[in-house]
TrEMBL record:
Record-given protein name: Carbon monoxide dehydrogenase large chain
Protein's organism: Shimia isoporae
Highest taxon, organism lineage: Bacteria
Catalysed reaction equations from the record: CO + a quinone + H2O = a quinol + CO2
Record flagged with keyword Translocase: no
Organism classification: Bacteria, Pseudomonadati, Pseudomonadota, Alphaproteobacteria, Rhodobacterales
Length: 808
């Protein structure tokens, strides 16, 4: 090389943080070379399939598997009776409840697992499922959580004590046999007093309906018990492979070192793949029993009807303010419908997740939140779907309450937000419900957003539209949806966040090879977020080797360091921090090696992009590539050979990303059809690792938000039948429905994260749902609407317009 590169050129060559590096994953995905669970085919592998309950609540009178067993190619039919001797007919849930693996005397929701058929292939298994005769005796069905709390019908006899008494649940005392827990945060009496004395109080019931993450790839696994060496290998669609390994060990009794859990490529998780499902347990048992590998993969209906739903929160709210619009208090009581078993995936101490972030972006001095979890005859699960542990619910709640308060005050909703935002100089900010927000600059983001969309111009146009509508010149109304959300992502810290007692740290282990390339392994697992691309960028900047020379590997518990996995947008805040810290350990050792090679003191060399240089003599340097080789090639006094490091990172706090969104929508009053004219999304996730990946995350999260706000729902009839169990009925948006999103950003680094990064994966969903919903509600504000429930499909919007007398 004759021409010496400039610092900038050397930095560019690394492909480090801040650059729009192309996704390294896509070469295989776009060529159909991904390796998903259903691609795994092991010698002799059998196929499992479930017999499921058609009823939402019924006693099991008898199960007759003889006809199924007589079918050629059927190996076994497992029922609760077969699992009971092993103690595996029930399993613990992540929420501290227990769940039937196979129906033990009764069923609690439509689609519940009743028997597990094991056959030579999937087709035979499906035929055999039809041949299993189950006699049911129907029981009264409860699909409404308020009715469930009043009903004499007992859903969970297993949780009754002697003589029908009510022992405490996993989260304290229970008030009723269908009650799960009460969780309270904040000051009840003080808040009620503030509400009583306030100039203005707005009150509303805000319902966030039941939805489903619906990833393209459904849940599944392949269990393979090697009886010769006692090793169990479990391939599966797991968002938390290490936690699954620990759970499998605890419930099966197989020692943890004899279990290898592998998450191969995952076709979208969105929270659906955090929990443990009966299919995993049955596959493992079936493999142990038969001695050959057993695969289980859900079909679409099974995925929609039986695995982790999201939301189903009834949030009764009160918000108070002075005449001038300064908010004085916030009160919320939530009734949470958890279905038949509480299988939510929240950190143990937070039975309603981080819903106590519901004071949002506002400086609210006094607040109170109570959540009652309730059993009903619906599918278990909960929390999942780009939610950051119930933060979607919290953001939807506060952003609706703000809009309703603006109506009550007869004020502009953007201005009401502005005067109540937490100010830049108030960070770190202690919220009334117990969080310490790390950093933020809400006013700057808000002003930038309003300016970008010409907010005043939009309001003027809207006012004109209302005039025109009243004058009969148009049948279309215009809605302006506003949202300013504050997220909370990056669980840990270990001191207050654990799942099943496992502290929520994360990890990274790096090995630099002699030729200056590297492999880094993490405790997280990508499901489409592009970790192999972005974590290599963090390392490129930290250790000065090109991102293209760094392999990122996740998801194999035999090789990756222990970590709690990918959900709650925690990978960047936690594993990303571990990656930077491990990189710095590499650099510290590299510094000693460089000093030795350059024959100066350690303190006399400094890191410069891709090398260590002698201070004041930039022509004397050793590149990281040279240093890597030296680490393996020479004996350096006082320094071990090799160049490796590992970091287990326990974050001191969560990170608090935020954003300002504006949606401009036209609504045809006669058809209820919505047209999104404009969607502007400003996100602040602190230091940005890869702007292109962030933009992709934002587009995806917004599209899922559009789905939820405008039509997607898991609906039940009174008998507990799922009305939306196929993609014919369950709204999954395609390019057809999706508008052109405008993305923007500000950068307010996290002060405690080693590279200042906050998470972003869930932000667009958290902010998007209220923004779309606010646009619909806002379109009708001039005609007296306060609040209407999601999902805002055409039919419901038509009904809203009709109810307001807009159809003449
Ligand atoms: N990123 C970045 N700069 C930042 C923050 C993040 O470049 N300041 C990048 C990260 O490097 C990573 C991606 O953005 O490649 C998302 O990072 P992060 O916000 O840390 O979220 P996680 O990686 O932990 O992903 C989880 C999050 C969740 S909880 C859901 S749900 C969701 C989401 O990611 N599921 C997804 N986005 C998804 N995207 C796809 N394609 N598939 C899913 O299943
Ligand atoms: Cu809450 S859905 Mo994401 O945490 O996997």
């Amino acid at each position: 090389m004759n021409k010496e590169l400039s610092r900038e050129e050397r930095a560019d060559a690394l492909g480090g943080m801040g650059c729009k590096r192309k996704r390294v994953e896509d070469a295989r995905f776009t060529q159909g070379k991904g390796n998903y669970v259903d691609d795994i085919k092991l010698p002799g592998m059998l196929q499992g399939d479930f017999v499921r309950s058609p009823y939402a609540h019924a006693k099991i009178v008898s199960i007759d598997a003889s006809a199924a067993l007589a079918l050629d190619g059927v190996i076994a039919v497992l029922t609760a009776e077969d699992l009971a001797p092993l103690g595996l007919h029930w399993m613990p849930t992540l929420a501290g409840d227990k769940q039937m693996v196979l129906a033990d005397g009764k069923v609690l929701f439509q689609g519940q697992e009743v028997a597990f058929v094991v056959a030579k292939d999937r087709y035979i298994a499906a035929d055999a499922v039809e041949l299993v005769e189950v006699e049911y005796e129907e029981l009264p069905v409860l699909t409404d959580p308020f009715a469930a709390m009043e009903s004499d019908v007992v859903l969970r006899e297993d949780l009754l004590g002697e003589g029908g008494s009510l022992p405490d649940g996993a989260h304290g005392p229970r008030k009723h046999h269908n009650h799960i827990f009460t969780w309270e945060v904040g000051e009840k009496d003080a808040t009620e007093q503030v509400l009583q004395e306030a100039d203005v109080v707005a009150e509303e019931m805000v319902y966030y309906h039941r939805t489903h993450p619906c990833p393209l790839e459904t849940c599944g696994c392949v269990a393979s018990m090697d009886k010769v060496n006692g090793k169990l290998t479990l391939h599966g669609t797991f968002q938390a492979p290490h936690a699954i390994r620990t759970v499998v060990s605890l419930i099966s009794g197989i020692e943890e070192h004899n279990i290898r859990v592998i998450s191969p490529d995952i076709g979208g998780g969105f929270g659906n793949k955090v929990g443990a499902y009966p299919g995993y347990v049955c596959s493992v048992v079936a493999s142990i029993v038969t001695g050959v590998p057993v695969k289980w993969v859900e079909d679409r209906m099974e995925n929609l009807m039986t695995t982790a739903f999201a939301r189903d929160y009834w949030m009764k709210g009160k918000i108070s303010a002075t005449k001038e619009g300064k908010i004085t208090g916030l009160w919320c009581h939530t009734t949470a419908d958890h279905g038949g078993f509480d299988a939510c995936a929240d950190p143990t101490k937070f039975p309603a997740g981080f819903m106590n972030i519901c004071t949002g972006s506002y400086d609210i001095p006094t607040a109170y939140l109570a959540v009652d979890g309730v059993y009903t005859n619906k599918a278990p699960g909960g929390v999942s779907y780009r939610c950051s542990f119930r933060v979607t619910e919290a953001a939807y709640f506060i952003e609706r309450m703000i809009e309703i308060l603006a109506i009550e005050l007869n004020m502009d909703a953007a201005e009401l937000r502005r005067i109540n935002f937490i100010k830049k100089e108030q960070f770190p900010y202690q919220s009334a419900l117990g969080w310490e927000y790390d950093s933020g600059d809400y006013h700057t983001a808000w002003d930038k957003a309003l300016k970008a969309v010409d907010y005043d111009g939009l309001r003027a146009e809207q006012a004109q539209r209302v005039e025109d509508f009243k004058a009969g010149k148009t049948r279309k109304l215009m809605g302006i949806g506003l949202t300013h959300f504050t997220e909370i992502v990056g669980a840990g810290p270990v001191k207050n966040c654990d799942i099943l007692g496992l502290g929520m740290f994360d990890s990274c282990e790096i090995r630099i090879h002699p030729t200056g390339s590297a492999i880094a392994r993490l405790g997280t697992i990508s499901q489409g977020q592009g970790h192999a691309t972005t974590f290599a960028q963090i390392l490129a900047t930290e250790i000065g080797l090109p991102a293209d020379s760094i392999t990122i590997e996740e998801g194999d518990t035999d090789t990756a360091p222990y970590g709690l996995g990918t959900y709650g947008s925690r990978s960047t805040p936690v594993a990303g921090a571990a990656t930077a810290m491990a990189g710095r350990k590499i650099r510290a050792k590299a510094q000693m090696i460089a000093a030795y090679l350059l024959e100066v003191h350690d303190d006399d060399v400094e890191f410069d992009v891709d090398r260590f240089v002698v201070k004041g003599a930039p022509e004397k340097f050793k590149t990281m590539k040279e240093i890597a080789f030296a680490a393996y090639n020479q004996a350096i006094p006082g320094i071990e050979p090799g160049l490796e490091a590992v970091s287990y990172y326990d974050p001191p706090n969560m990170t608090y990303p935020f954003g300002a969104y504006v949606c401009v929508m036209d609504i045809d009053v006669d058809t209820g059809v919505t047209e999104i004219r404009r969607f502007y999304a400003l996100d602040d996730c602190g230091t940005r690792i890869n702007p292109m990946i962030i933009e992709g995350q934002v587009h995806g999260g917004l599209t899922e938000a559009l789905a939820v706000a405008l039509g997607q729902e898991i609906a039940y009839d009174d008998m507990g039948n799922v009305k939306t169990g196929t993609l014919m009925d369950f709204f999954l948006p395609t390019a057809w429905e999706v508008p052109n999103y405008e993305t923007d950003h500000t950068v307010t680094p996290s002060p405690h994260h080693p590279i200042g990064a906050k998470g972003v994966g869930e932000s667009p969903h958290v902010g998007g749902v209220p923004c779309f919903s606010n646009a619909v509600n806002d379109a009708f504000r001039a005609f007296g609407l306060r609040h209407t429930h999601m999902p805002h499909d055409h039919w419901r919007i038509w009904k809203t317009a009709n109810g307001l007398g807009l159809h003449g």
